[in-house]
Amino acid sequence: MPKYVPEPFRIKMIEPIRLIPAAEREQAIRTAGYNTFAIRAEDIFLDYLTDSGTGAMSHHQWAAMMQGDESYAGARSYYRLKEVMDHVFGFKYFVPTHQGRAAENILANLLIKPGMFVPSNMHFDTTEGNIRARGGRPTNLIRAEAYDPRARVDFKGDMDIAKLRAFIEEKGVENIPLGMITITNNAGGGQPVSMQNLRDVSAVYREYRIPFFIDACRFAENSYFIKLREPGYADKTPLEIAQEMFSLADGATMSAKKDGIVNIGGFLATNDESLFERIKNELILREGFPTYGGLAGRDLDAMAVGFMEALDERYLEYRLAQTAYLGDSLLEAGIPIIEPPGAHAIYLDAKRLLAHIPQRELPGITLAVEMYRQGGIRAAELGTVAFGYIDPETGEEHLPELDLVRMAIPRRVYTQSHLDYTVETLKEIAGRSKKLKGYRITYQPRLMRHFTARFEPL
Ligand SMILES: *Cc1c(COP(=O)(O)O)cnc(C)c1O
């Protein structure tokens, strides 16, 4: 039996969810053009579309929100957040932003000129989008095992240091305005980065005087993986590990909708005073005054409390165990996933589960549709639709290596029985998988097509 760590909280406010009848689910998915993004939330039973902004806040966070100071400038809420920021992240300067991509937008706008490169282990799609929007070229330099779904390595999010060094030498430091790393690696299965790798990456960036920014969305989950897996860290607290990670960088971007356990919020931090001056001016133009950054005072208070709760060891033990429980239960049932389970999501390997459906006939869409049909479960295809494209020059279709369906787990929201129900649903689908047929695209936009594409069954 896969191990389950009981929830270290109890429920005192509930939000009803219901499984609508099968005939209504059929109608809902057809109306949605067989795209799970287009289903109304009230027609969904269990929603694994994303872990972003979907977490449950604690009574401490709600209580803190009631004390939000809504002064336009210099609010008490800002100083409460600043105290936590200084303690956990330790950068000299920061501004709050309404979410992660707002921080990325400001940074890209200030640092990137057309033709410049930004290396990382793997950029998340909004980071990639913001770099490209300025004419820059996001480059992924992750270790090779990350592309093998069954390779079980401890730190599958690590960057390839030799590749990084060769890349800098080849492109020239003058063409690399900043370097990044994403912890944990969302685009690659939520896999962690080791402290040793952060140290090595930091040393290379510092040697070449390239400013080093951490995409810190899941910093607490990454800290706990280091505690569990990296020699020398078993006796350190997640807070101490986080402090050490950030001491290696020159700045960070963050979506607090992940490890801030809030519904909205983020920040951009730096140690560079002159960059900070420019950041503030950009922020005032686009987001708001530097002590609130497009958020309400109460949102800053919820973030300040959320960062500390995300670092609570009992919470992190439960969080990682919950995801591993779902992943291990699926593996036990013979359902293929990306291994080992990451922290925030389980990625189903649709190409392997539905091996009889050719990749052009969208096995990932087939599986996501079937999960909704069978159990009212919503997940997102991250495969042929999300990452495939038609080459504008040759007109040829480019198919990605993997065809995945992501189940992201909202923080503190679902219980073990919800996960068991999910495993049962997938087992039923796997049992009749041979009978399933693929889909074809009837509408697709030019970019980010998985959000709005429409399909029909073959
Ligand atoms: C969610 C996310 C972002 C973007 O944050 P938003 O709050 O959605 O704008 C950036 N990087 C990573 C790794 C993320 O997971």
List the helices and strands and how they pair.
Elements: H1 22-31, E1 46-47, H2 59-66, H3 76-88, E2 93-97, H4 100-111, E3 117-120, H5 125-133, E4 137-140, H6 161-171, E5 179-182, H7 195-207, E6 212-215, H8 219-229, H9 238-247, E7 251-255, E8 266-270, H10 273-286, H11 297-310, H12 313-332, E9 345-349, H13 350-353, H14 363-375, E10 377-378, E11 380-382, H15 384-387, E12 389-390, E13 397-398, E14 404-408, H16 416-431, E15 439-443, E16 454-457
Parallel strand pairs: 1-10, 3-4, 5-6, 6-7
Antiparallel strand pairs: 2-8, 7-8, 9-14, 11-14, 12-13, 15-16
Helix pairs in contact: 1-14, 2-11, 3-11, 4-5, 8-9, 8-12, 12-16, 14-16
The protein binds pyridoxal-5'-phosphate.
Pyridoxal-5'-phosphate binds next to helix 4 and helix 5.
Would you mind describing this structure in some detail?
The chain is α/β, with parallel strands linked by helices. It folds into 2 domains: 174 residues, Aspartate Aminotransferase, domain 1 (Alpha-Beta Complex), CATH 3.90.1150; 251 residues, Type I PLP-dependent aspartate aminotransferase-like (Major domain) (Aspartate Aminotransferase, domain 2). It has 16 helices and 16 strands. It has a 5-stranded mixed β-sheet with strand order 2-8-7-6-5. It has a 3-stranded antiparallel β-sheet with strand order 9-14-11. It has a two-stranded parallel sheet with strand order 1-10. Helix 14 packs across helix 16. The radius of gyration is 22 Å and the shape is globular. It starts with 21 loop residues before the first helix and ends with a strand. The structure holds pyridoxal-5'-phosphate.
